[in-house]
Structures are given as structure tokens and as C-alpha cells.
Write a structure and sequence with these properties.
Blueprint (H helix, E strand, L loop, with lengths): L1 H29 L12 H11 L8 H15 L4 H25 L11 H28 L3 H25 L16 H19 L11 H31 L13 H47 L5 E5 L5 E4 L2 H6 L3 H4 L10 H16 L4 E9 L5 E10 L6 E7 L1 H22 L9 H13 L5 E8 L2 H8 L1 H18 L5 E4 L4 E7 L3 H16 L3 E2 L5 E2 L3 E7 L6 H17 L5 E3 L13
Parallel strand pairs: 11-12
Antiparallel strand pairs: 1-2, 1-5, 3-4, 4-5, 6-8, 6-11, 7-8, 9-10
Helix pairs in contact: 1-2, 1-3, 2-4, 2-6, 3-4, 4-5, 5-6, 6-8, 6-9, 7-8, 8-9, 15-16, 16-17
Main location: membrane
Catalytic activity: 2 GTP = 3',3'-c-di-GMP + 2 diphosphate
Pfam families: GGDEF, MASE1, PAS
Amino acid sequence: MTGILAGRSSLSTILTCTVWCLAAIVSVGWTRHGGSSSMIWPANAILVAAALCVRNFNWRLFPPLLLVLSTMVNLGDHRPWVTSIGFATANLVEILFAVLLTRRFSPISGFFEYPGWAFRFAVATVSAVICSAAIAAEALYLSEGRDWLGGAMAWTMAHLPGLLITVPVLLALNPYDTKGSADHDAPSRLVVIGLMALVAGAAIVVYRQSHYPFQFLLLPPLVLATYHLYAKGAALAVAIIGMIGSYFIFTDVGPVMPFHGPDSLRVYIFQLDLATIFFCALPLGAVLTQRDQKAVLAERRLRDFRHLADRVGDVLFRVDAFGRWSYLNPASEQLFGVPVEYRLGQHMLESVIPEDRVALSRVLAEIVSGSREDLRRIVSICRRDGTIRHVEILAHRLDEDLGYGGLIRDVTDQLTQNEQNRQIAEANEHAANTDELTDLPNRRAFFQTLHACLAQRTSKIAVAIFDLDHFKLVNDRYGHPVGDVVLRRVASTVLASVRDGDMVARIGGEEFAVLITDRNPEQAISLARRLVRAVSSDSIAIPSGPILHVTISMGIASHQPDEDRAALIERADQALYAAKRGGRNRLMIADATLISQPADSA
């Protein structure tokens, strides 16, 4: 496979150099002035265009082959060996520099997609021709004694227009180049023929007479051809103008004839005129190409957006500055319950329930006025069938006077799920902090609340801890179900005797705790005494059993400055144990050290 590609590369390079040789022979033979130098030299442009377009151009074979062919052409024109070799070197340098600089300063593909390409190509071409002209002028000076500056000028005037005109023409008319042409509707063959006939007619009118400088008449048909056919139209028009103008000039007819001087001067002026109008048309072709490419890209992106929007489950919308729907994707039909066509043109707030309409209208007005850029809000809408749905609106302000757009998401199920999750979380939290038997806060909840009060440095805190006297005997004599009834009755009795701000918790089997806040120690002790009396005076009716009376032993400790939770609980526990040792059914009060005197028994 590599050998086949190499063979094709060599063959294409040989054929291109052969075409160059034929063009060089024609230029030398038919366009020579008094000094036997060619006035028109398009041969190098053929190789430059081929090197830019042909991917498999053989750069190893090309330099020696070109040197040999160029030397033979100049020897055939009766040039000395030094001049022939110098001209061959100059041609090679010119082609290499033109290709190198064009690739360096211009895109390798899509030459006519950028308006600045023509200018950069002209700079690259002028630089390459200046280098080759210096080499050719030196060869003429050393071999034939010609004036160095005159030789350089003659070389430049022949080679520069040839590159400036022929290379863009060949690149534009390259039938295999699809990157440099925009995606646009190609005009019919009849339109192309008509445009080229118009160009040819203008060229004939301009160049078949020698009295008036009518070259400006070439611009309208050239611009018209460029407008419809882009760079290819400009190249084809210039090729037609060049052939017609060359025919008349070489028959001594044309608007350049009044110029006094050698024939070469008239040819140079003709080439420069041609290059000027061509390089005026090329940027126009590039601008039109970019316009069509951007239009195609915009259309493709719009098509992709619509393709995606039609498949998005959320509603994509756009609203004008007056609050009316101007775009809705198909998902809106499922959300609102009406076809998109029916909803377009209606006001956005029509489907919003009255309770949410005023606040939403105010925020949307701020977006339209520019005082805010976006919003995110949940509102309720009424569908056509009367059902209420909750939606989240995410809107963003568009350009001035274009309203706003964004997304509408149905969050009804999500809000329902969130509410269910919240209720479940609350239930779990309640279960985690509640005693299942008495429905009082449990040990975990009690210590969390006590810790929070101490962290807030709440003043006047007291903790009372109590348990039922001889509760084991109740369970042993009457059974655990009766014991559960007793625990519930004691819990309700104590809870009914405290304030709403106080906390009663079951922290063990028959052990309870009371957190008393916002009371001085005397008030807390008074409350504790009432709790002991309330339990002892209560009668507990047992189903199918006797009336029970139970008592409690309680220890109370008031919080001391800089005292932590563990120390406070420890003092209350010690007071409780002292109450049990002191005969039960009583309250013991802890002091800063251990235990104070007992309270009156209930």
C-alpha cells in the first residue's frame, strides 16, 4: 500500500512539473519583450497551487526535477549556463517560499473562508518573488552583465502578477476542493452561463477599444458573479477577463495602448489591473462564505436544539416582554393539559393560581425591567382538567426587549415525597426520643435537652430524679402489665403537676427525671415536694383488682456555677439514694457537697 501511494505521489509530481514546463515554454515563446524575458509567467503558480492542494506531493522528487526542467527551458531560450542555472534556482526558491509562507500565514484548507486570506497570501507572494528576483538579477548580472535593478524589476513584474492571479484562480477552480466552498444552494447552470456571459461582454466592451479607460466596468459583473458563485465565481470571471484582455492586448488593442513605453509595460499594467480587481472580489467571496457557513451552523444548532427540546421531559419556554408565551416545547402539553398551539400567545400567569399570581407577577416584572437577572420559585398551577400541580420555575432574562426564558419542572411528586419523608423523619425522631410505654421523653432526649440548656448558660436550672418505692413488689405480686399501668399513671400524674416549660422524662425502668428551668432553688424544691405528695395521694385503679397507692423517692439538685452535666446529675442521684436510705416517700435536697436536710415526708 505504501508503495502504491509513493508511486502515485511521484507520478502526480512528474505530471505537475511537466505542465509547468509546457507553461514555461509558452510564456517564454509568446510573451517576451525586447530583452528576451517573459512578460507573463504563470508557470510557477501551477506548482504553488499543486503543492498547496495535492496531499501526496513528492517533495523529494520535486526540487531536482524542477531544477533540471527549468535549466533545460532556459537553455532552449539560448540562455548561458550561469543564467539558466540561476533562473532555475530562483524558480525553485520562489515556489518553496510561496508555499512555505502561505502555509505559515494562511490556512492550509479552506483558503477562501477568511477575508484576510487574500492579504496574507499577497504578502507571502511578494516576499517569495522578492527573494527569487534577487537571485535572478544576480545571475543576469554575473552572466550577461545586465543591470541588477532592471533585471530584478523585470523578473518581479513578470512573476508577481502570475502568482497573484493564477494561484487563487487554480485554488478556487479546484474541482476536488470542498472545504473552501460554503454550503449554499448552487445556482442553476443557466445562471452560471448568464453570469459568465455578462462578464465576457463587459470584458469585450472594455478591451476591444483603446480610447477610454473603462476598466471600472469590469467590477459590477465581477462582484455579481462573486455574490452568486463566491470565490469560484470570482476566479472564473477573472480567468475569462484575463483571456479576453490578453487576446486584445496582444493584437495591439485595449485601454492600456495609450501608455507610452514598451509592450511589456502595457502587459504589466494589464496584469496589475486584473490582480487588483481580483483581490477586491476575493474578500467579498470569503465574507459570503462565512455568512453561509454561520447560517448553516446556526440552522444546524437550532435543529439540534429543537430535537433535544422535543424530547426533554421538563417544559422549556420563552416569554416576550409582555408576559405572553412565545415558545413552548411539547412537554408543556402534558403539564398544562392543552396543546402548545392553544397556549402560545396567552399570558403566562393565566394558569397560575390566584394565591401565587401576585408575588410571581412582581418578580417577573423585575426581570423584564432588568432589576434582576433570574428567578427560581415554586408556584401552583391549575390544569385544564382542574387538578392542581406544583411547579418550579427557573427563568433567566434574555436580551433587551426579548423577555425571559427558562425551564418549568413539575415538582408535585417531589414535594409530596419530601413531605412524606419529613413526616417519616419526624416520626423517627419522635420514636428515638420518646419512651414507648409512658410517651414521655426518654433518657436520650432528657440529656440532650439538659446539655442544650447548660450550653446556653440558662440560669436557674434544677434536676430532680425519682423512682417508685418497692416497685419490684408490684411487679411480683400483680404482674408486669399492672406494673406498666402504674408507671403510666405516675408519669401522667407528675406531668400534670409541672409547667409546660419543664420536662419530665423516663430515664430507666422505674426511674424518672424532671428538668426544672427558670425557677430559683426554693421554687424548684417546692415543686419537687408537690410532685412527691401528688403521687402518694393518687389512687390507681387496677382492672379486676384492688386500688393501689404508690410512693416515690426523689433527690433534687440546683445547678451551681461552672458545674457540668455529670456533676449535676451525680448530686441529684446522691440525693435520691439518701431519700431511699432515709425511709423513702420523701424528697432529699443536695447541696454543693453532697446532701442537705430531708424535706417533709409526704
